[in-house]
Structures are given as C-alpha cells and as structure tokens.
Amino acid sequence: QVQLVESGGGSVQAGGSLRLSCAASGGSISPYRAGWFRQAPGKERELVATINWSGATTDYADSVKGRFTISRANAKNTVYLQMDSLKPEDTAVYYCNINTLGVWGQGTQVTVSS
After folding, report:
1. In Å, what is the CA distance from 36 to each residue of 4, 87, 114?
2. pLDDT digits 0-9 by tens, 51-85
3. What is the pLDDT of residue 35?
4. pLDDT value of position 45
5. Where does residue 90 rank: exposed (0-12), middle (13-18), buried (19+ CB within 10 A)?
6. Is the CB of residue 24 less than 8 Å from the CB of residue 10?
7. What was the pLDDT predicted at 28?
8. Cα–Cα distance for residue pair 112/114, rounded to 1 Å
9. Higher pLDDT residue, 17 or 99?
10. DSSP conformation class of 23
11. E strand or H helix at 76, and its extent?
C-alpha cells in the first residue's frame, strides 16, 4: 500500500519561502494526479494545487496563484510544493494527496508570522 510522507514545513516570516516535499513509498505514484491541500485551525481542508501524472498540467487555488508552484519528480516518486511570498494566512497544516488511491500523508505544519 502506498504511503505518503510530507516534509519541509516550518516557521518563516511573511515574504519568505518554503519547499514542501511529499515522498511516496510502497508503490509508484507516477501514473496518478497528485494534490496539495491545507487546513488552518477552525477551517475546512482546502485544495491548494494539483498536478497531472506527467507534470504538464497544474492547477492552483486563486489564493496561491503566482506564489506557489507544484511539481513532481516521478523518478524519485516525489511531489513538491514551492511556496514563495508567504503570507500569515498561508499558516496551516499542509497535506499531500493521491485521490485515485485514497491516500493522504500525515501533514506538515507551515507557520508564517507577520
């Protein structure tokens, strides 16, 4: 069974950058669309970005367009989320997801201070 492990979260000041990684084990995720979600305290989980199997097609929530970039390295079985120009409202736990497999990672905390 595929397992996902996120890493790269942390605490940064507004305007800073972080790069999240989602490493898969137990099977290949290269045939599948992947996504990043986030959940802030007291709020519902929301979709941040998705990427198709080849990396050729990406989609973003309006709130992160132009600041976040999703990518993948299928040879490494890993999906990334580059986050630039971070804002305090980006503070949340970020989760990696492969919807087709119904698999979620454990999440990684991102905290942005003003």
Report:
1. 12, 17, 24
2. 999 999 999 999 999 999 999 999 999 999 999 99
3. 98
4. 97
5. buried
6. no
7. 96
8. 7
9. 17
10. E
11. none
Predicted pLDDT of residue 42: 95
Rounded Cα distance, 74 and 91, in Å: 28
Rounded to whole angstroms, how far apart are CA atoms 58 and 71? 8
Under a CB-based contact definition with an 8 Å cutoff, are residues 34 and 50 in contact? yes
Q: Tell me the percentage of the chain whose pLDDT exceeds 70.
A: 100
Identify whether the C-beta of residue 23 lies closer than 8 Å to the C-beta of residue 105. Answer: no
CB 36 within 8 A of CB 51: no
DSSP 8-state class, residue 102: T
Contact present, 65 and 47 (Cβ < 8 Å)? no
CA 92/CA 23 separation, integer angstroms? 19
Task: Please name the residues in contact with 3: beta carbons below 8 A apart, sequence gap of 6 or more.
Answer: 24, 25, 26, 103
Helices (H), 1-114: none
